[in-house]
Structure formats: C-alpha cells, structure tokens
Design goal:
This protein folds into 3 domains: about 80 residues, Winged helix-like DNA-binding domain superfamily/Winged helix DNA-binding domain (Arc Repressor Mutant, subunit A, Orthogonal Bundle), CATH 1.10.10; about 35 residues; about 140 residues, Rossmann fold (3-Layer(aba) Sandwich), CATH 3.40.50.10490. The relative contact order is 0.12. It is of the alpha/beta class.
Length: about 270
Amino acid sequence: MKKPAAPASVDEFQERLVQIADTLPKRLRQCADFVAHNTDKIALSTVAELAAGAGVQPSAFMRFCQLLGFAGFSDMQRLFRDSYGQRWPDYATRLDNLRSEGGQSPAALLAEFIEAGRLSLERLASTVDSEALDAAVAALAAAPTIHVMGMRRAFPVATYLSYAFEKMDIPSILHDGVGKLGRRHAIRPGDVVIAISFAPYTQETIDLAVYARERGNEVVAITDTVTSPLRRLGVHALNVSEVDVGSFRALSATLSLAIALAVAVGATRQSR
C-alpha cells in the first residue's frame, strides 16, 4: 500500500485524523484520541511523553505518526512547531515563571487559570469554523423547541444555555437526567438538540444525539476534538478546547462560544 503524503497543515492533519480514526486498532486509536485532545502538547513534548499520555509504548506512537504519512515523530512535531511556535512556547514559559515565582499560592494559581483562559480564547478565535457556526445558528433559530444536554464538566454550559434561552423567551428543555428520568420522547419533528460533551465523553449525551439523528432531528454538538464520537453523527459540530492547568480545565472559551451561540439564535429569531 502506498504511503500517504504527510499533512501539510494542522487543518489537513485534523482531517486525516477524522478519516482514519474509526479504522485504527486499539493502541493506535488511543494515540489518535490523545493527540486530538492535546494538539497543544505536540510541539513541546517528547515522543515518550506523548506515548505515556496515550497509554502506549513509544514504538506504537511512532507507528501512528507513520500511518499519518510522516517519516517519524520529528516530522509531525515540526508541523506543529511551525504552526504554534509563537504561542505554545510562550504559554509554557509563562506558566513556568508563574510556578517558580509564586509556587502554589492562591494568587499564583489564579494567574495560571487566567493565562490558560486567555490562551483558550485566542485559540477559539483562530480556529472557530464560521460556516459551522452560521449553520448551527440557522438550525436553532428555526427550531420549535431546543433541547439541551451536557453532563459533568459540560453541565454548567448546558444550564447556562437553558437560562439564556429562557430569558429570551425561546422554548427549550434541559435534559439534566435528574432522577434518571429521560425526556427524549419530548423531542418532536423539527426540534433541534444541542449536545455538549468533552473527552472522555458522556454516554447519555451521545445516546440522546444518536436518538435525535435517527429520527431526523438536527443536532448541534459543542465538543472538543475531531475524533469526538458526536462528530460522526452528521451534526453541526462546534469545536472548542481549553488549555489545562495541571489536570483541570476551566470553561472560559466554551462559555464564550455558548453565549455567542445563544445571543445569535435570539437575534436571528427576533429578526424573523
């Protein structure tokens, strides 16, 4: 089999991931999922560090790089260093300085989250798919009722969207799973579902999106990676990722995307 040409840009890299993700064996799929969720780490990490993060041996990670068309890890890393050279080293340097100067004091921790939030917002501004956002707004503005679901880390985003829709007199239902009571049967023809989920992804949210798509309803997905299971359902996908502080991710960019989406839907409905 002829080896594919290496992706020439980060966008091509993400498209290649989408194309091959479902065909990969378990270990290589772990590499794909980890890379899709942590593209910011590729430019700065060693192959051993990335392999450990994906839970595989470095040799498996090297095979993954070659499957994408690269000669090896160094070639893949070069692509990301060229693309993010001005941003990610600066982020690492800033956080290293914060840690060395302030230790783990509350003020230093706050500064880390502020810096991570700023970079998350910058990333959103530079990567948002305007066409996907326009299509999502159009679908939601035309919906008789909007159904919103997001669990765990996505729950604050779901509740905020429901609150915003309520304040704008837009019919909506929050599927919160309280009491294990499902509300999927409330989805009627023409209704649109907003499904919000981030790795490791909540099965209940995915199940609701699958249910809606099987019945011909449109779904707007707010998710984090090109390999997200929500993207495979033929949805209006809005990608947003957050820079982490340790193992914690705030919601700075995600909530900004959510409020923009809600306000745009409200304005479009009012103009009609």
